[in-house]
Amino acid sequence: MQRYVIRRLVQMVPILLGISIVVFALLAAAPGDQVDLLLSGVPGITPADVIRLKHVYGLDEPPHIRYVKWLERAAQGDFGWSRTYREPVSTLILDRLGNTVSLAAGALVLALAVAVPVGIYSALHQYSALDYAATLFTFFGVSVPVFWFGIMLIYLFGVNWHLLPPGGINSPGVTPGLPLVADRLKYLPLPTLALGLVFMASFTRYTRSSMLEVVRQDFVRTARAKGLPGRVVIRRHALRNALIPLVTVLGVAVPGILAGAPLTETVFSWPGVGKLLVDSTLGADYAVAQGIIMFIAVMAIGANLLVDIAYGILDPRIRFD
Amino acid sequence: MARLPASGSPAVPRPGPGRARLEPAQGSGQGFWALAWYRFRHHKVALAGAAVVLVLVLVTLLAGPIAPYRFEDIDLTARLRSPSWRHLLGTDTIGHDVFTRLLYAGRVSLLVGFSAAVAAASAGILIGATAGFYGGWLDNVLMRITDVSLALPDLPILIVLSKYLGGSVAGIVFVISLFAWRGVARLVRGEVLKLRGQEFADAARALGATDLRILARHLVPNTLAPVIVAATLIVGGAILTEAALSFLGIGIQPPVPSWGNMLQNAQDFILSAPRRRPQGRSGPPAQALGHRAGSRDA
Amino acid sequence: MADPLLSVRNLKTYFYTDEGVVRAVDGLSYDLHRGETLGIVGESGSGKSVHALSVMRLIPTPPGKIVDGQILFEGRDLLKLSDEQMRRIRGNRIAMVFQEPMTSLNPVLTIGEQIAEAIILHQHLDKRAAWTRAAEMLERVKIPLARQRVKDYPHQFSGGMRQRVMIAMALSCNPSVLIADEPTTALDVTIQAQIIELMRELQRDFGTSIIMITHNLGVVAEMCDNVVVMYAGRPIETTTIKRIFQEPKHPYTWGLLHSVPKLYERRERLIPIEGQPPSLIDLPPGCSFAPRCPFAMEICVQADPPDFPVGPTHTAKCYLYSDKATEKEKKAAAAAGLAASSLSGS
Question: Within 13 Å and on the Cβ side, how many CA atoms surround B130?
């Protein structure tokens, strides 16, 4: 187990290196570097100033040298300086990370909390009214784009009915502590639902088909033949086998959630990493964009590793060697 | 629909000749496509999906004759109008006719969707077939790249990429294709790997066929069925991705309409002037998007 | 003779599918006595496994349904019990071993948990005692290092070992009846012999009555006291083990005997039964074996044959033993029966 984790961690290194090269190359190929952007339109700047500044920032060096230097700094957590926010990139990201994580975690928990019971019920009562309703819902859920659904939620709950705030993360002027948390609870439901919908739908679908498959397995018949009550057969024998594969789907969902975050956060003006990515990209603040992508890549790959480990713990057939 | 009991009770006889309805005799020269077409015709959901897609394609292709205005026409005296006979779906913040823009935006979306699917499927076939056919380190490297990129969230990277490359339809198609080939490549690799070892490939080789010929004539055509399925999924995905990027203001730029940038316009409006009824503006493009995306399930 | 332990009367189990009604079991009757081993023989699709699930009341409903008949266990009709009452019999008084040892155990639970769970349920032992009993049962089925292996998962056992686990599980509550549905079919030949030997031994020790469902006449010869031969959901011949090999009466039974390969005996070739078993939907009137039967007469395709007594404790559903058959036909049949019995060589 320990060796497996270490091996996986070691394997992550070349992957992250590869990603960093790609990201760096892309941004190096971008038209205009930091200095150009910084100085564009500033009056009284001579070409000599530009050259001097570029030398100060090391931008006159060949790309591979710059890459190595960037990597050295990035490894120490220094992703550079944002020209629009005038803050270190790492600070910017870390400040917003909590917001994104709480949104993503909320969306996943909500998705699971709805999908697992509904999926199981659907499977056990195949072709019932609720099963058809669930199928219809999953169809809707996987088809609807998150940004449209978000706008509809804002329109209905925020604008039309005035039930929940249409965007943002906290009311202005709330005192920190418990009031802030209570206030936050009003802002969470809509973006959580918007981001979670797709996963709710796909998890429901997955749970249903997984459960349908498992209840037809021979070992479920064996359990019934022992005289176990139906509830116990489902809970002890069917459920666990049906839910283990769901862990894999969770693994796929983590990058999906991270991909959905920029859209949801933009729609709801949620100050998270995703919105920061969109804003910095639109504002040509490349150092920030670069940092965020590296960050997201690490999170996605890390989640993948966690899922593999979880799978191994849950399924005794998987061995780590 | 009744289902037969659990596997492992072979005593329940599989009745008669065909399990389900009788399909046209297989192997009687009917061919693969005929069979596929037959199945398709008898699949209600698939038919409904196809009908929706067909209507959308027709309507958007005929946008010129159908649309009452040109998409860049602005009527500053009639901004934010509710639906009426003059403006079927109303007008937007600067007086564009929403119905007209919806049609033209559909054209852009479909163009992006199909182009991306073709580009991505071609790239996927090329990479997958090469990896599967030659195997070894090449396969290893290509598949590692595929695996890793599948574990990454694509949209954040697409956002940054489109900033440089996007803006135009071609740029968006290129960016989307950069990420969409992976599934196809995996699929084709798997199939080629399986087929490579079969007799007909050996037979072709024995007849002196070149690698390229074996691949192009014998192996790749046999992988096409699943590739087409994957490609239709790419169409839907690409349309959604384009809409997402345009919605964020990074994809197709106004005045060229796209379902995504129309939605963005609508959202700005909902929040800034909430008392006006906005269905006319955000409803239609979104519903169009939903339909389109839904049909990929079929 | 004493009252039978289990008596199946005119059991009918049908499946309602899109294609029509599948009459999987269509009028099965037999008696099982204490300590007896009854063989139920037939091809796949003859309804033997469906009958077993019917006795356990494990037929998936829908599409399946027990439409008629009685299953009298110790005088009580199982089909009239509530689900709750039936649950208390299942795994406790009547237990079952399935054909597929590879898939019949839950992959994510240890075998100890899986055996102990039935013991806790029916014997009301606490967890510790149940585990001790589980380990004892594993010893009884001769699993080496049983006390350590209770903590293992199914995938750590071979097919033969898993079937031993299944048997241990089935016998853990000391049931009166054990239904074994093709318990050796999925196993290697040498393992098959071991499992048969084990079951015989356990039957001696536990005094369990066994219903042995198989298509393998060799297994029947090894284990059974009495035999029911099933065809297309019906019992076409019922008799003792001795008579089925020495005086088989039904043409289908002859066919079965002809198609068994024999060691030490050079036969020119095996004689398969011509044709396919019938579809169980829209069965034509008459004997369902008639289309494949070399001795079929006019009456055979017109009316369903009843059971004809053909000897002490021996019945056959065949018009050859009625007054409908001519002397000539009876003679030809007798010759064929003799030929079939000589093959069995027992």
Answer: 11
CATH 3.40.50.360 fits B62-297, yes or no: no
| pLDDT tens, residue by residue, A56-108 | 767 777 778 888 888 888 888 888 888 788 888 889 999 999 999 999 999 99
- B239: CB partners within 8 A, 6+ apart: B109, B110, B112, B113, B259, B289, B292, B293
What is the residue range of C254's domain? 248-336
Domain ranges of chain A: 97-284
| Alpha helix stretches (DSSP H) within B166-278 | 169-196, 199-206, 211-213, 220-247, 259-272
Domain spanning A97-284: CATH 3.40.50.720: no
Distance in angstroms (rounded) separating the CA atoms of residues A58 and A52? 10
Alpha helices in C110-249 (DSSP H): 111-123, 127-140, 146-149, 159-171, 189-206, 217-223, 241-246
Chain A hits for C92, Cβ within 8 Å: 227
Among chain C residues, the shortest Cα distance to B9 is held by C49
Residues of C in contact with B10 (CB under 8 A): 44-45, 49
First to last CA, chain B: 20
Q: How many CB atoms lie within 10 A of CB A113?
A: 13
Domain annotation covers residue C52: no
Of B112, B110, B111, B149, the residue nearest B127 (C-alpha): B149
| B15: nearest CB among C20, C46, C47 | C20
| Alpha helices (H) in C33-182, listed in sequence order | 48-55, 83-89, 111-123, 127-140, 146-149, 159-171
Domain count, chain C: 1
Do the beta carbons of residue C169 and residue C96 sit within 8 Å? no
- The answer to whether ipTM exceeds 0.90 is no
User: Measured at the alpha carbon of residue A146, what is the angle toward residues A142 and A149, in degrees to the nearest 5?
Assistant: 95
Q: Using an 8 Å Cβ cutoff, are A83 and A34 in contact?
A: yes
- Closest CA–CA distance from residue A202 to any residue of chain C (Å): 25
C227, C38 contact by CB (below 8 A) = yes
**pLDDT range class, residue B292, cuts 50, 70, 90:** very low
**Which pLDDT tens digit goes with each residue over B97-131?**
777 777 888 888 888 889 999 999 999 998 888 88
Tokens 């189990």, residue located = C13
